[in-house]
Amino acid sequence: MVSAEFEAMTTLYQVMPEIVAEPLAWGGYEMENDTWFYICRFHELSEDIPDVSDFPALLAELHKRGGANETEFGFPITTYGGRNRRTFPVSKSWEETFSKGLHNTFDIEEETQGKPEEMTSLRKEFVAKIVPRLLRPLETEGRKLTPALVHGDIWDGNASVDVQTGLPLIFDATPMYAHNESYIDEYVKHYPISAQQISSRV
Fold this sequence. Notes:
Elements: H1 2-15, E1 23-28, E2 36-40, H2 55-67, E3 79-81, E4 84-86, H3 94-113, H4 117-135, E5 148-150, E6 159-161, E7 168-170, E8 176-178
Helix pairs in contact: 3-4
């Protein structure tokens, strides 16, 4: 898990060092089994969340820079959100990567909660019908998605403000190359929503 955190944050730092604390090292304790550490450059953080006036633009820049030379979606290693693994296999199709990642998420849920009939049915219908109806139009009839490097778990607990620079800092990422995270109104001013035409109801 710690090695994945190091690789994840290194990937983001190499693309957007101005908003990521530099990862320095990771390893295990010699005298304590199953005890690990992750070290990054120290930044004093405020108790504020990033300002909406500049944070969406910085996220959009991360997505643009990180996706500039990428042709495939997904991420080559398994990352972790807390204790939960996140696996999004590498593929040239966002629908394929997302569907397989969703299957992995359902697998984790079933490992911990069992396989209730309702959830099994929901899983089958969601992956077979809803995902294709939402995502396939983004990559058909001449439309094309460009993979963008995304943080993967952006919320106010994974972002803060550097006291010295006043710039946002992001951490605890579960990154992947994905369809850009276009769910913030201010964000779409800097990275437009993909065109899509969905004729059928979900």
